[in-house]
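Help wanted!
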Amino acid sequence: MADIESSFDDSSCFSPQSPGSLLTTKRRSKETTITINCVTFPHPDTMPEQQLLKPNEWSYCDYFWADKKDPQGNSSVSGFEDLLQKQLKGKQMQKEMAEFIHERIKIEEEYAKNLAKLSQISLAAQEEGTLGEAWAQLKKSLSDEAEVHLKFSSKLHIEVEKPLLNFRENFKKDMKKFDHQIADLRKQLASRYAAVEKARKALAERQKDLDVKTQQLEIKLSNKTEEDIKKARRKSTQAGDELMRCMDLYNQAQSKWFEEMVTTTMELERLEVQRIEMIRQHLCRYTQLRHETDMFNQSTVEPVDQLLQKVDPAKDRELWVKEHKTGDTRPVDIEIPV
Amino acid sequence: MADIESSFDDSSCFSPQSPGSLLTTKRRSKETTITINCVTFPHPDTMPEQQLLKPNEWSYCDYFWADKKDPQGNSSVSGFEDLLQKQLKGKQMQKEMAEFIHERIKIEEEYAKNLAKLSQISLAAQEEGTLGEAWAQLKKSLSDEAEVHLKFSSKLHIEVEKPLLNFRENFKKDMKKFDHQIADLRKQLASRYAAVEKARKALAERQKDLDVKTQQLEIKLSNKTEEDIKKARRKSTQAGDELMRCMDLYNQAQSKWFEEMVTTTMELERLEVQRIEMIRQHLCRYTQLRHETDMFNQSTVEPVDQLLQKVDPAKDRELWVKEHKTGDTRPVDIEIPV
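Answered by r_m:
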């Protein structure tokens, strides 16, 4: 911040000038400043060299000094307004991302619910032996899978959706505050510019009056006129002083606005970096959770695979025969029981 | 098969005996056979050593010779019937597994549909710069994920559900054929056993008649009686021959039933091994497809991860500022344009 302020001080390279010198200076062929919407810039034809406050950083504080014409109407929008709009849009994007994640959560929950339900269905529950075991595990694996997806959705909710939704809760309020601050300073600048203009006109009238009276003195000398000239000169000097005072107040207001603009746009910039970092971080968490889900999912099938390796028709036959056999004595030829 | 038949031949260790020797043999203290539901087994008290046809294999052909009492009623069920029931149940289990897989397919389709739909929703579509790119890829990854699950469901349908459903299409018909064959042979056995019993009774009557006449001869000798005895002896011999013929037919029928039982139960055993192997194979395919799905799923997140790595707030600011900047000339103090 100290850097900025010193840069700012450097850039205000116009030292106060005494009104006398100003007024007595020969008319310059070119004006050195131009005032647009009450903000005073160096004149394009006599542009002084201005170093960017934060060169190579594309900092907001360097690029939004001018106002922008509304493409539709003639009303102009301040550069700061544009920046605010970006911030509010960013906040909106973040909210929509949270909504998107919320939809994903609902899909995962639905999927998990369906898998769990299917896992409970008693289809082929009477399959026996090693095949029966493998089958039961296959069904159980669905409830494990459901668990994995449920965990995914719950972590998405806590670790992605909520942070995205809650990050900068009072953001809009803060933006409104910034908006009012900057707008108030611009209004003050405008009213002080109007005062400068008024003082400038008054001075011009006083100078014209003094000129007229001076000519009158040349034509017909009289005490009365000399008194008038003295009075007119005094009034002209007073008008000059007033103009200087108004210009001073105007410059103070512009300086204050300038400082606030720099401070606030840099704050907006910091918030935008923070927003992007935060979103990046939580979307990374999303992909990480997705990876974990796939990994855990794989582990749900492993016990099924193991039991499928052990499926053995001979073993199953042995188990079934042992339980169901009716008799292993083979028939023999009939004999006459004598 | 040759092995079985030779085993079977070995087991039929009862050589034909002449009816004469049978009839004249002294009554043995113990009977050597016992007939249950028209099937003749060695008598428990004089059980000969019987090697299993397929020792250590728990083969169906060794353990289902006796009938089984129905636990509710008094009706008995043949061992073969039990085996058939197992086969039909196996077929039913297989069908239910196919149904289960079908439900899984529907769940995957629904999940894929929801993911694809969400991927199309334009939430946060206006996010800009590198973050906007990462976000767009994150949304696209959902449609890739949907594709993966759709492929999973389609492969489940073609490579698991259909084979499980279609394997042994005519199975029930084949089982019915086996059932009829074995039942018919058992019926034949029963009718031939009845014939043996009838012949046995006839012989007993003839022998009794011969005994009576022989006693009569001892008491009062007469030509007439001697003629009667001759006739009675002839009739007794004829009855003995008839019994031998009936026993022979019975043994033939039992032998045929035995052979058919061995052949058919071994066929059922082969089919059951085939069923288990087939199911095992297709459930392995299921787990394999699940693994592939998890793997492909992981790959859908990789491009998102890559773009998230590249998210850079400074870059995004540069892009946005370049497009939206209103002016980088800073305001200066107002000067009196003289």
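OP: Thanks! One thing I noticed: Residues 80-309 of chain B form a domain with the Substrate Binding Domain Of Dnak; Chain:A; Domain 2 fold (CATH 1.20.1270.60).
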